[in-house]
Write a structure and sequence with these properties.
Four copies of one chain form a homotetramer.
Chain A lengths: L2 E5 L3 H12 L5 E5 L4 H14 L8 E4 L10 E4 L18 H18 L4 E4 L4 H12 L6 E3 L2 H16 L6 E2 L2 E2 L7 E2 L5 E2 L2 E2 H8 L3 H19 L4 H15 L4 E9 L4 E10 L2 E5 L6 H18 L14
Parallel strand pairs in A: 1-2, 1-4, 2-3, 4-5, 5-6
Antiparallel strand pairs in A: 7-10, 8-9, 10-11, 12-13, 13-14
Helix pairs in contact in A: 1-2, 1-8, 3-4, 4-9, 5-7
Chain lengths: 316, 316, 316, 316
């Protein structure tokens, strides 16, 4: 049986829950939201009201961390989206909230005896993911963040619009922070199998504009609806499916970089133990420099978290 | 190709859109929201950002009513959920808003040349559904409301909790207004094939309490999350699937009653032309009286809509 | 993770495997066929060749019974369909083959340490299911047969054709042997919520003809394609989903009858431990007599299996 | 509504039908098999018997070519698999049968007034696809063959096994005939984003062996089960979904090559009009030579079909 937990039942957590239920992916689902258990309960009811009209059933429980002991997947989605309302594109604006929340959540996860794979969706994603790994005591492979899995999807969408093709025709990766210092590694990107750099040169397309559109994609959604939910939930669920099926699926996500000693968005292989490996693609020197800079920014912020100062960090 | 339109991209409209996209049900989707086109555009973006991670593709467009001319299904979901914040269980509280909105929307639907099946999700559902049928000029069968399809799902959930079974083991119907005057027609309800009245007598279960829990189900969700979305979207999508597949599926919904000369929640058969027929089950005298009263309340409110006074109404 | 095993990779076993893979239901799948491991291997390859085109992944292994130790579900589908080629509607014609096969399979299941739920699809279904329960040492609830779940689906189809409605509008059950002595318990059957006996009386429909059409449904398929596969695989998978989700879903199937001391097709509730309970519906005296007779025939044949003579049987 | 037709209800046609029904993809399905209408009818029954257990409904009809007039998709799957039993890897062995069958089928398709997209699954695929395009009078874009879509999936599987990753991590294409003269264009193939040629050099992997394993994949399946069905049906359905959703999805398939004046397996973009375009990737000189040779073989056989001699061919 597939057992999922979700901590934080805001827009992202609730949409993730709905996705798991409406597609019959989860057999059992634990919703946890210490800061708004009434909402968790309401989401449970709304999901249960749907089940007479679905072909599958998911057992839903609210509020008991002990249920995580035998869960396969745990999504951590707590946050305060309103912190971003005037953030002008800066996901760090949410950090003052989420740094407190995660200090509350992490010990509870540890105490629950959770042994599965933790998928972090909180922002700033890379920094919080790293903190969760350090404080829950879970193996490094078992903790990952959605990171640039979403940004890569946005890049694929922006590029696919440009060429009027299915976004799945676009391969390649966005690297770095799930935030402003991210970048599209155009040397890795292909459209219908053709290098985008060549296509862009032929057609006089400005890749910087496409990169910016991809990076700003989340803010475009945020400004219109006040939050983002569908794409991020879809990404989170897909990562979890790769874990449950032991798929060894290639997904960019926030995974630990030995080279830069931090969690950061990069191509990884996802299987039953979470991050099976990271894939080192031959980036250009300029791309590598951007990657290093972005990783450095994450690491710097990470060290401001209590107990995470340089010397304290030990990678498992 | 399956072409859907959605008017109103609030929580219900957006969740309906997400369901159609994430489950690969719609090939083409038109989002329309004159009062908040920015949100419609943001939902489009969020849904498109998801598509690189989905196995199917849905083409999404925003804002052009003319696209409805060859759509198969049109959901009308406009509303103002905040009208209900202090409504104490009275969906008519939304009527002062929605009666205005629907007068704006109906002529646009008519002008679009839409010829498919219109599924109304606006509240008060039965009254607005009737108005939409009268003003769009669509055949009676082509216009239906989600009505008690949702209330019946809630009844099934409440009953299934009582007996610890799958909600699909519970058959039978909630009749009447999608609102306070609705009732669970217990004479039609069976659990695992056994009449609930007998089970309730054996086990000393108070059916009035269960009925009240079903009726209040929506408010429980509303009070915890500020709106309802997942169950209603699931119901709306299921009705549309019955239409597209010409399933002749038995679904309670808001359909026209010849006897009571109004749209009202009752068992119906849903196929490619919408409501193929309504099913007359042998209700008890007390149930029939409740049904009559509920239908009367709807009809009364309906007649307060401009141009809908008694003599003007002609059923197609 | 959802782990499935299938013993016997003929038409039914292979179609079941394909269903689990193509719908992303199974995370891991073990195919076992001692009598045709080459076919099991070919089915594995064919299913794996499909996976580049599917959104989900299923890990497939062939031939190792030890893998069953931690499987959730085991389908047993071995048989010899050609035994039925001239059987004129008599599933017992397959018994001379399957009684040998099951004596080979049962000890291997036991030795594997399988602790999940066993769903038997072999024919004659009820008899073989009972034998598997007795010889594997699994708890009674953990062993069930597809039994009249398929025959009920056929009855629903035949009735739905008669009334031009969705088969899901037809509720009620076929009882007894998955074979000739089965019967449609018309007192339990409703169409769109209305008792079929009343509808039949109104419309001058011969229920005996419908019953016969349902009973002969499998033979109609068999005579045209040489075997049956899609409906039976769909039924088997649905039972397994009810187990994995702990759905407590009402399904007629071959479950143990305390009253008649044999496995026999009857309404049951299916949850995580298999058969949670059987549902005793108020049959007519004539129906009860048919049920008793059918159960008796099964029991009689069952006792011809080695070690299953009357006194040896002990129900868990 | 999505309306499908299938001509030829053997293993591939029936499995395709089951996939469309069990996944709720088709709203309406027409099964046509002049040579075995009893089997078509049996498959219809088996699929209908399944529908009481499925969440969706598909209306199925048998035998009326006129129904194709408004169908969206037509699969042509007729063949004689036994022609391959001693074929030693030569799909042309089936040609003596299929060249007759297709001369019978093509005029019936034309007479039906079918205007949708025809997806050919008959063997030898490229040759028959070309013939169907010429004789049905459908536009070139509206006729395609599954061609190397399946062979590419097999290459992805073989490569993914070598590297223990998800087959979807493997990108790139098999070109040429759906038959012996096909080849894996290794210059286009990447694993986890890395060029396979480099990975193979590093790890001392023989790409010729992998290519041979991919090419022989179908025969491995055939020798074990007597036919292939699951992967080919999955490929066919996926192509049709790209058409219905107007996805512009990159899929290698049998599409017309202007350069070589024949249908042949190559990367193409699939949208609502079928083949939107073919993608010219920069092959190596050796690959281009293989492609030319393979296309030449197809063209040569094609010209042996009645009326298809050189001068008669006019590309639309």
């Amino acid at each position: 049986m597939r057992k999922y937990g979700i901590i934080g039942v805001g827009h992202v957590g609730a949409t993730t829950a709905y996705t798991l239920v409406t597609k019959g992916i989860a057999d059992e689902l634990i919703l946890l939201d210490d800061h708004n258990e009434a909402k968790a309960m309401a989401e449970k009811l709304d999901l249960e009201d749907a089940q007479a009209r679905l072909d599958t059933r998911t057992r839903i429980k609210v509020g008991d961390y002990a249920e995580l002991a035998d869960a396969d997947i745990l999504f951590v989605t707590a946050g305060n989206i309103h912190a971003l309302d005037n953030a002008s594109g800066n996901r760090w604006a949410e950090f003052s909230y989420t740094r407190e929340i995660v200090q509350d959540i992490a010990p509870k996860i540890k105490a629950s005896g959770f042994k599965g794979v933790l998928i972090d969706v909180m922002n700033p994603c890379d920094c919080i993911t790293y903190y969760l790994q350090q404080t829950t005591g879970l193996p490094q492979s078992h903790v990952l963040g959605t990171g640039t899995f979403l940004d890569t999807a946005r890049m694929q969408k922006v590029v696919s619009d440009q060429f009027d093709v299915d976004p799945k025709n676009v391969t390649g990766y966005v690297y770095g922070e799930h935030g402003e210092s991210q970048f599209s590694a155009w040397s890795t990107v292909r459209v219908n199998g053709l290098p985008i750099k060549e296509l862009a040169a032929d057609k006089d397309i400005d890749l910087n504009e496409l990169e910016d559109a991809a990076r700003r994609g989340g803010w475009a959604v945020h400004s219109g609806k006040g939050y983002t939910s569908y794409a991020i939930a879809t990404c989170a669920v897909k990562l979890s499916q790769a874990v449950l099926a032991d798929a060894n699926l290639a997904c960019p996500c926030s995974a630990f970089s030995e080279k830069y000693q931090t969690y950061v968005g990069q191509p990884a292989i996802i299987g039953k133990d979470g991050v099976v490996s990271v894939t080192e693609l031959p980036l250009t020197a300029a791309e590598e420099a951007k990657f290093k800079r972005s990783a450095g920014l994450i690491r710097e912020k990470f060290e401001t978290l209590p107990g995470m100062a340089k010397k304290a960090v030990k990678t498992a």
